[in-house]
Structure formats: C-alpha cells, structure tokens
C-alpha cells in the first residue's frame, strides 16, 4: 500500500541518503547547485491554517490561493536565448491546468467502499488523488513561470454533459449553483463530468482566452505549449446500480453522464475553437517546421539532417499539441491533414508504450503511474528502477530530437509520498516539459497544496520547480541539459548552445531502445 509507513520511511531514507556528490557529473552538480539556490530563496512556510480540522474538514477542497497572493517575482522570459532553438529549452508545465478539487461531499462519496471497489481499489483513484487545486492561469504564467499547459477536451454540443453532475446528486448536495459556463455548448475541460467537474475556466475557449490575453501583453515570452487531450471516457463508465439510484430520485440527472464520442469532424471543431481565440499568426504550425521535408521527424532530427527552428522567431507565440494516448485521434487527424502539413496541431504519442511512433510525431509523452501502476509493490527500489527505466527512454528520445513531456507526479501519488526522484531525474534526462500538479509551492500559501489524508489532514512539502541558473533570477525557461551543449547554469549571449558547441554534442548514446521511429 502506498501510504504505508514503511514505504514512506524507505523513500525518505533514500532521499536523504547518499552524498554521492563526488560521483556527480558536472551537470548533476549544476542541478544540485540550482536546487539549493531555489531552496534558499524560498520564503518561510506559511502556517497551514486550513489543515487542522476533523474528517469532514480534512476532505474539504483545497482553497485556491487567489484571495490575496503575496507580491511575487514575475517570471522572466528574458533569457539570452538568441541563438537557441526550440528544443533547447526546458520549462515547467501543469497537468489539467484548470483543475479545482471536487467539493468535499463528492470526495467523501468517492471514499465509499462501493466506489473504491468500482475504481479497482486503485491508489490512483483514492479520494486524495483528486485533491489538488491549481492557481488560475494568469498566476501560473506570471508567478510560477508555467509555459506548458494541458487541458482536457470533452465534446459538449448542447451544454448538457456536466450541467447537473451526478456526483452532487448522489452526495445529496444538488442545491449547489454551478458556474453558468457548464451549460454553454462547446468543449469542456474538467477531469470527469460527474465527479471531478470543477475547473477554474470550465470551457476550453475560456481557458484559451486567458492564455491569449496574457500572451498579447507579453510579446517576447518564450513559446507557450498547450496540450489538448480529447476525452470520451468517464471515471465510472456506465454503472447500472448508480443509474438506478439516480433514476429512483427526482431531479437531474437521471443517469451518469454519457460522453460524446469524438470523430474527425470534432477534431476540426477543436481547431475552430482555437481559432476563435488565436490568430493563425500567433500559432507555431507544423507546416512551418516541415517546409519541404518529407516528414516532421526528418525536419527536426539531426541524424536525418533536420533541426528545430530558432527561439527568436517564435517568441510570443503558442504551439498546440493534440494528445493521442491510445493511437486513435492521431490517425483521425492525419486523415484530414496528411503528414500534418496543413494542420494546426502537432500530435503527441506515448513514448513509454509499444506503439509505433508515426513519422509525423515529434512530441512524446511519458505520463501515467510510475512503473505502469504497480504502486502496491512500490518500494524505494522498484520506484527508482521504474524511474531509471523511464528516464533512459526520455534521454534517448530527447537526444534523437524528440520533444518530451514527462509527468513529475500522477494523481498526487508522488506528492503523498514526497517522492522527488521522478522529477529530478526527468530534469537530468532533458525533458522539455516537466509537468506537475504541484508547481513551485514555495511561491504559494502552503495550504493550497495540502495533500489531505483520510483521517487527520496531512501534507507534504512536495513541490516541483526547475533549478535556477547559477546566480540567476526566476526564469520561465532554462537550457536543456541534453540538447544545449551542457550550457545549463550560465547561458551566455549565444544562448543555450552555439552551433559550434552543439556540434560537439555526442550523437545519441546508449541503446536507442525506446524510440521505434
Ligand atoms: C441537442 O439538443 C437538440 C434540441 O434539444 C436535440 O435535437 C439534439 O439531438 C441534441 N444533440 C445532442 C448531440 O444531444
Ligand atoms: C445545500 O444543502 C446542504 C444540505 O442540506 C446545506 O447544508 C447547504 O447549506 C445547502 N447549500 C446551499 C447553497 O443552499
Ligand atoms: C494587458 O494590458 C492591459 C493594458 O496594460 C491591461 O489593462 C490588462 O489587464 C492586461 N491583461 C493581462 C491579461 O495581463
Ligand atoms: C448503460 O447500460 C445499460 C444496461 O446495460 C444500457 O441499457 C444503456 O444503453 C447503457 N448506456 C450507455 C450510455 O451506454
Ligand atoms: C495544403 O494547403 C494548400 C493551400 O491551401 C493546398 O494547396 C495543399 O494542397 C494542401 N496540402 C495538403 C497536403 O493538404
Ligand atoms: C509492451 O510490450 C511488453 C512485451 O510485450 C509488455 O510486457 C508491456 O506490458 C507492453 N507495454 C505497454 C505499455 O503496452
Ligand atoms: C510516413 O508514414 C506514413 C504512414 O503513417 C507513410 O504513408 C509515409 O510514406 C511515411 N513517409 C515517409 C517519408 O516515410
Ligand atoms: C475514507 O475511507 C477510509 C476507509 O474506509 C476511512 O478510514 C476514512 O476515514 C475515510 N475518510 C473519510 C474522509 O471519510
Ligand atoms: C488527529 O488530530 C487530533 C487533534 O489534533 C489528535 O488528537 C489525534 O491523535 C490525531 N489522530 C491521528 C490518527 O493522528
Ligand atoms: C515541511 O517543511 C517545513 C519547513 O522546512 C518543516 O518544518 C516540516 O517538517 C516539513 N513537513 C514535512 C511533512 O516534511
Ligand atoms: C558566463 O559566461 C560568460 C561568457 O563565457 C563568462 O564571461 C562569465 O564569466 C560566465 N559566468 C559564470 C558565473 O560562470
Ligand atoms: C549566434 O551564433 C553565431 C554563430 O555561432 C554568432 O556569430 C553570433 O554572434 C551569435 N549571436 C549572438 C547574439 O550571440
């Protein structure tokens, strides 16, 4: 079991052990120095006022820290990245960037044994796994330096999908007044229409508008990457017993949400949603990278003569990646836009799966439960082995020229365990986007990120941030240790790596096991 004291203890021992400083490579020392710098600059921990209550209070949604955020340093995009290319950056991202923890009554409901059984007694679906609330999009951009976002995209043509979330009715709190945007038609962004429906922006269009309005005010920002994930599977699927329960009582809804399947036309509508908010000139399009090359891989991978374009030409712009985790939407989309030549979205595929990587795919995802979900056997040894295995694949892919997005934590499990090796090793492996639900907590009131336990509230100090440059200030991006000729700590006027520096970069070392492209 994840939260067993024993597992916790060995993880802590592991984290605290080992001054392997002497054995560290140069880049590891730089990372360490950066991490220390971050820690020493962190403000004192704010008292966790909201954490100290009984079971019901313990399950209350973490309050969003927006009431009166302290004056914070603004993230700076002003790196000397003139000669850097798009794949030489490393930035922090958020997962379900609009997520707000479900109401306490719904979490209480999900804690019931019937629900937990239906969810496979899986720690990834324990009530705590929904217990994170991200600050709003402006705060993420300004104060946390987030330059990668992720939004779910649920088709909702009539504004009915989550107009009456079943979770509220089943929990006996159907008197809650929802944001009217739940009844708007168009793509919605929540985690689940019945139980995990809270969002700081609700409609995809609203979420994108926030990014767009910030972007036009900060024209020199490094590119913002937005992952859009089509969704059509609900948390509990079609449960006849819950449907009976819902139908036996008056009031909406009379059954669990029935999601709309997403087809090619809907992907076009997803594009239209983007164009209702962004001018095409603000978007980095796949075609602009492809040029006259035959595939996006050929256009971007050094071994076959490609290279990523310069940062400088893409400042102030936004890039969209459609997530294809099950080998479905990518094919659908490429039928509409062969080779992605005239497409708006890039497509990402899992880099840690077995599926063939399409030759138009240049974005790989390393997400999901660490080690594929066998958290029950998650000792320090198996956790670290899983990290090593995943990050070897990340490093090989990054060196080959792919853009990687790596989860630092999944469904709050790493936060509950205060387990940092996944994020630390991802940084070293050169992930371009380090994606977390717990960005730089030092910048926020502590209680906003409390991971609430089942009896007394408990929290860890888990947080994810990128190491600062030596003597550096708070920057929204940093040079990528795998693709920037190692210029991590002291970017010079020539950016993350001059042409000459990069020529010295070793070709992809080691077994190129992972990437079958
Ligand atoms: C949307 O609502 C209209 C009018 O009520 C109905 O005719 C149509 O079938 C609904 N569409 C979907 C996809 O549910
Ligand atoms: C909803 O109902 C609950 C339980 O009856 C009550 O405690 C709560 O105050 C009500 N909320 C609103 C907004 O009316
Ligand atoms: C953009 O700048 C204008 C003018 O300074 C300001 O009124 C507005 O609040 C800014 N918007 C954002 C999202 O920063
Ligand atoms: C759910 O299951 C019931 C009974 O098996 C079936 O009649 C119904 O059509 C299903 N609903 C959906 C949306 O699949
Ligand atoms: C892309 O768009 C251009 C101009 O609209 C068109 O001429 C071309 O045939 C399209 N290419 C593909 C592969 O669809
Ligand atoms: C990949 O294939 C191996 C061997 O066939 C299998 O054990 C593993 O579960 C597969 N992984 C995924 C993510 O499908
Ligand atoms: C890229 O892959 C597609 C299949 O997805 C194939 O039809 C095409 O010929 C490939 N292109 C090149 C240049 O290999
Ligand atoms: C959740 O369920 C567990 C096991 O039944 C129980 O110990 C715990 O108190 C419950 N938590 C809440 C908040 O009800
Ligand atoms: C929960 O907190 C109360 C009051 O702070 C304390 O008396 C009690 O021992 C705690 N229970 C557990 C299981 O830690
Ligand atoms: C969190 O950090 C504070 C300050 O460094 C420390 O006092 C506290 O014990 C830490 N809490 C946990 C759960 O590690
Ligand atoms: C950073 O690089 C510049 C240019 O190479 C050099 O002059 C400077 O001393 C370096 N700074 C540090 C802190 O290493
Ligand atoms: C960019 O790199 C080129 C060649 O490597 C160099 O001549 C130029 O000075 C660099 N520009 C800046 C601003 O560093």
TrEMBL record:
One GO BP annotation of this record: lipid metabolic process
Region forming the signal peptide: 1-22
KW Signal (keyword) present: yes
Keywords: Signal
GO MF annotation: an example: phosphoric diester hydrolase activity
Source organism, top-level taxon: Eukaryota
Keyword Signal assigned: yes
Name by which UniProt lists this protein: Uncharacterized protein
Species this protein is from: Coccomyxa viridis
Lineage per the UniProt record: Eukaryota, Viridiplantae, Chlorophyta, core chlorophytes, Trebouxiophyceae
